[in-house]
Each structure stands twice: as structure tokens, then as C-alpha cells.
Specification:
Length: 66
């Protein structure tokens, strides 16, 4: 796998961890401030995921992704 593809894969793994943390944090939060924090984390993860998936598709179309 090319280094640039590996970085995209790692980004997608990071997004999964961000979403998991947002879910776990939201489940145990005790105030609204934490709710905002985990909401921002979740929203940001989805935005990054969309960008990374689009980039992965572009690399697949170029024949780079293995």
C-alpha cells in the first residue's frame, strides 16, 4: 500500500476511534458542556470521514488503492 493510501486508512481508523469516544463520553456525561464537547467530536469525525472516503475513492479510481 502506498504511503498516501496508508495515511487515508489511518485517518479512517482515527475517525472510528473518535466516534467511539463520542458515544462513550456522551453515555457517561454529567453536564451539558460535555454534551457539546462530544457533539462537536462526533460532528468533526463525520466531516473528516466524508473527506477521507472521497479521497479513498479518488485513489481507487486512479488505481493506487490496493
Amino acid at each position: 500500500m502506498k504511503a498516501c493510501d496508508e495515511s487515508i486508512r489511518e485517518t479512517l481508523d482515527l475517525v472510528d476511534n473518535m466516534l467511539d469516544l463520542a458515544d462513550r463520553g456522551d453515555a457517561v456525561r454529567e453536564d451539558n458542556g460535555c454534551g457539546v464537547l462530544y457533539g462537536v467530536l462526533r460532528d468533526t469525525a463525520f466531516r473528516i470521514k466524508k473527506l477521507a472516503e472521497a479521497e479513498r475513492e479518488a485513489h481507487i479510481k486512479k488505481g493506487w488503492w490496493k
